[in-house]
Design a protein that fits this description.
The protein contains 24 helices and six strands. It has 579 residues and is mainly alpha-helical. The strands form three sheets. It has a two-stranded antiparallel sheet with strand order 1-2. Helix 6 (121-152) crosses helix 7 and helix 14 crosses helix 15. It is globular and about 75 Å long. It starts with a strand and ends in a 22-residue tail after the last helix.
């Protein structure tokens, strides 16, 4: 948002300047609290609706292309083991992250800040996450362009532009529009996903047996190869940052209560790490469809999801197979790319708000994200799919593993605060526990990926990244005694920690949801989004705090000048959250 400051009317009065946000940035129906804690007043959806919307975003067909690429390159046996192993790692690391985001009402960036990275340390992960969104937007857009080329002969270069422009009106309107799109398109997607496999079950019942002995197209053979297994797992692990896109929905999960806790837990598990169960099935299914179509369309087209879809549907639909397959692909890609564009806009907003102290509004960053994605499509990144994703996964898994280690190990050991603190006013700029672990782990694994330590280390570079991050994050937190998590104590401890209520175990929900007016923008926000500001001599919202370029971080440099306590400090047991 282009934010402006209204000067005092008279020099003598000199009241604190008031920040007013540009129209788009001030409209939360567009912003969806993009840089903030999601307040309870905004969490209007039921657990099942949040989960359904989040799972609608994993309709993408990149899984088909990734699975086919792995199996074609390394053979069925190694590829199958790779896909399942990657799914297990993604599922396990995703559990604590999903529960944290749903419990605290925070997106992945804000959780990362408080889970061992610090206020500026997490800017690097914002870039990692943004790159995930535009890389996969480009991949999904390429698949949609291929479908439009097959269906109506549209040149793929023009198709890239169409696939980019088509999502803008939806993403511009925010979460409400995304939820409607996911709900309306779900029936078409389900039918399109199931029908090809149903046709092959009747028309080619022996194909699965032949697929299980498939040795790939690169001479890998049908037996198991440790090198192939390691490299294939690395490609599949490139999807580990998908938990961030799930978190962008999960932060709107309603408060967890006695009445809804079973549905809440199930919804968080399904919409959080549960996406990878469907994802792994799609990778194997996509590889199978590509295998069946291989002889008819050739290797290049078999790796493009549209061609195997057409070949599978032909026995039943004949000439209607092409339009039916094209409709399914286009619907699938719209469903995922609205999520990619939305999540990318959140990530860029978080990055630039900290670096520039400006926030023109989330919607403007949609165009930045899409411009980068369109450039990648025009450069034909689809042709370098395996190498690009294999490289990316080294960085992505180091980040996610470090965050998971903090939530699971550091908080339970008492080296990390028992809640997620995301506000600038209370955080160190850089926390070496998570940030240091990620930098070391990703650096070593990238060197291994490029062959510096030999063939086996190259194949298992992502395992090196995960292992180092999981070990180093707790080790650094223990060595530093957790001193770099909080620059000063929060006068009201742990408001986002209780079972989805937004309050600590002994903090009344009414206290948490009571609003406090920001001294800068004069807007009321719930307690978790408010900090005590000594410069303003009162409460300040998290976004105004982030955008302040002149305060000199007085509150962090001299914790003794903390502002007024906003409400009575509750007595809270120092226990780790149940994530």
């Amino acid at each position: 948002m282009t934010d402006t400051v209204t000067p005092a009317e008279t020099p003598a009065a000199a009241p604190p300047p008031r920040r007013s946000y540009a129209k788009l940035a001030a409209d939360e129906s567009r912003e969806d609290y993009s840089l903030r804690y999601a307040p309870h007043s905004f969490r209007r959806w039921s657990p099942s609706m949040v989960a359904g919307t989040a799972l609608g975003g994993i309709a993408y067909l990149a899984d088909f292309a990734i699975g086919a690429s792995i199996v074609f390159t390394y053979g069925f046996t190694s590829g199958f083991a790779s896909i399942l192993t990657a799914a297990a790692i993604i599922f396990l690391t995703g559990i604590p992250i999903a529960r944290a985001c749903a419990t605290y009402g925070l997106d992945m960036d804000l959780v990362t800040r408080g889970a061992g990275f610090g206020y500026f340390g997490s800017t690097l992960t914002s870039l990692i996450y943004a790159s995930f969104t535009f890389i996969f937007f480009a991949l999904e857009g390429s698949i949609m362009a291929q479908a439009m080329h097959q269906a109506v002969g549209l040149p793929v270069e023009i198709g890239y532009l169409v696939t980019t422009l088509i999502v803008i009106p939806i993403v511009f309107r925010g979460m409400g529009a995304l939820a409607k799109v996911q709900a309306w398109t779900q029936p078409i997607w389900i039918v399109g996903m199931v029908l090809p496999f149903l046709v092959l079950a009747f028309e080619a019942p022996d194909a699965w047996g032949a697929f299980a002995s498939f040795g790939g197209t690169e001479g890998a053979g049908s037996g198991f190869s440790w090198i192939g297994f390691g490299l294939g797992t690395g490609v599949a692990l490139s999807l580990i940052a998908q938990i961030g896109e799930q978190a962008d929905y999960l932060r709107f999960m309603p408060a967890k209560t006695e009445a809804n806790k079973r549905r809440w837990n199930l919804a968080v598990l399904a919409a959080g790490p549960g996406w990878v169960i469907i994802g792994a099935a799609k990778q194997l299914g996509g590889a199978f469809l590509a295998f069946v179509a291989l002889e008819a369309v050739g290797k290049t087209h078999a790796l493009e999801p549209i061609a195997p879809q057409i070949e599978a549907l032909k026995p039943w639909l004949g000439t209607f197979a092409l339009p039916a397959a094209a409709l399914f692909v286009i619907v699938s890609q719209v469903k995922i790319n609205v999520t990619n564009a939305y999540s990318g806009s959140l990530s860029w907003s978080n990055f630039f708000s900290r670096v520039t102290h400006k926030h023109p509004g989330r919607v403007w960053y949609i165009f930045l994200n899409l411009a980068i994605a369109l450039t990648l499509m025009e450069m034909n990144m689809f042709a370098a799919l395996g190498k690009l994703l294999g490289f990316y996964s080294n960085v992505g898994i180091a980040w996610i593993a470090a965050v998971a280690a903090d939530l699971v190990i550091n908080k339970r050991a008492g080296w990390s605060p028992p809640y997620i603190e995301f506000k600038r006013a209370y955080l160190y700029s850089v926390n070496p526990a998570g940030f240091g672990a990620m930098v070391v782990a990703s650096t070593v694994s990238i060197l291994a990926f490029f062959g510096l330590f030999g063939a086996y280390a190259q194949a298992f570079s992502t395992f090196i990244a995960a292992g180092l991050a999981l070990v180093l994050c707790p080790l650094i937190a223990w060595a530093t005694k957790g001193r770099y998590y909080l620059a000063r104590p929060n006068p009201v401890w742990g408001h986002p920690q209780a079972e989805g209520s937004g309050g600590g175990p002994d903090v009344d929900v009414a206290d948490v949801t009571a609003t406090h007016t920001c001294a800068v923008c004069e807007t009321a926000y719930e307690l978790p989004d408010i900090a005590d500001c000594p410069v303003q001599s009162g409460p300040i919202c998290s976004l105004c705090c982030s955008l302040d370029a002149e305060c000199g971080d007085v509150c962090r440099k001299d914790p003794g000048v903390a502002g007024p306590v906003l409400m009575p400090v509750p007595t809270v047991p120092q226990a780790a959250p149940k994530l």
